[in-house]
Amino acid sequence: DRVDIAILILYFIWKLDMVVEEEHVLIVTNSGMDAQGKRANLTTFLQLKELLPRKYKKNAREVYILHPTTSTKMFFRAFRPFVSASFWRKLHYMSDPSELYRKEPFKGRTILLPEDVINFSRPKTKIFGGPLDEVLVNTPQGWSLPQVIHQSVFHLILEGLEVEGMFRVSGDMKKVAILRDQFENGEDVDLSNYDTHTVASCFKMYLRMLPEPLLTFNLYQPFLNTHETYIKEGPEAWISETFQLLSSLPEANQAALQILFLLLHKLQAKSDINKMNAKNLSIVFGPTLLYSPTLDPKFSIQNSGMVNEIVCWMISHATCLILDRGAVVGDY
């Protein structure tokens, strides 16, 4: 539901008008704002500036924004020219309520904060570098996939199939870092604000940071064994053997692989435009999807050629292996 910001500000003034007659400290809790799609904009800023009496700004000793999101910080940076320098000296960002107690105004005092604000600060499962199945449980939208996979694949299918060098050309790493933070913080991410190479780079980063590859450590050797099957017995025998291995993967891995190979299959179908055929894509994704659990890099390097060929065949034969195997693909 949309809230009339003017009415909200007037209610705020009515509740605090007596308090701000004297010098005061303001704590603004920003917990979960972007995740719910409630963003500040130019209209909000101008209304706030117009409606708030001068004493709110003059008598504010310090202003603390608790749990600031990337969007919040970018918003304030954008409007820095419109606000006096004295205000910026008062503004502080806090990522955890415990930080408030180290500040002079709150030493030795009790701060009463809503329970959801306190819970927001408790440790969460990491998105980048966190286990795939744990991220699925914690995804607020109720998807069967992490937000970063669902949104990235959908966006790249719509916008990236004809972009030359997709997944080979790196995106702007500063923007990749911002995008990663937005996903990590559970923000409402608008990928239209980013170029396709940046989205692709962030997506690759997510896959590379998984603690276990999507094809899993346990099946590393069985997947390698399928290479000999393809060479000696041909594609049909290889498809049958590979299909059985894919079917034995955890459900979360199967769902992620389904839409990943859907994207890669669509990309290689337009390789005359984007210059990314199945072989080129396998060079990018082979080392990410299938690698040895051993820490000895020599072992992985020795088998890198086979790994890339196996992933190349998976992309080429995706219609048999992946695309007819589940309902997830139907959503795309």
From TrEMBL:
Q: What Gene Ontology terms describe what this protein does at the molecular function level?
A: GTPase activator activity
Q: Which residues form the signal peptide?
A: none
Give the PROSITE patterns listed for this entry: RHOGAP (PS50238)
Q: List the protein's name.
A: Rho-GAP domain-containing protein
Query: What Pfam families does this protein's entry cite?
Result: CRAL_TRIO_2, RhoGAP
Which processes are annotated in GO (biological process)? small GTPase-mediated signal transduction
Task: Report the source organism.
Answer: Paramoeba aestuarina
Annotated Rho-GAP domain residues: 130-322
CDD domains registered for this protein in UniProt = RhoGAP, SEC14
Instruction: Enumerate the SMART domains for this protein.
Output: RhoGAP (SM00324)
| InterPro entries referenced in this protein's UniProt entry, alphabetically | CRAL-TRIO_dom, CRAL-TRIO_dom_sf, Rho_GTPase_activation_prot, RhoGAP_dom
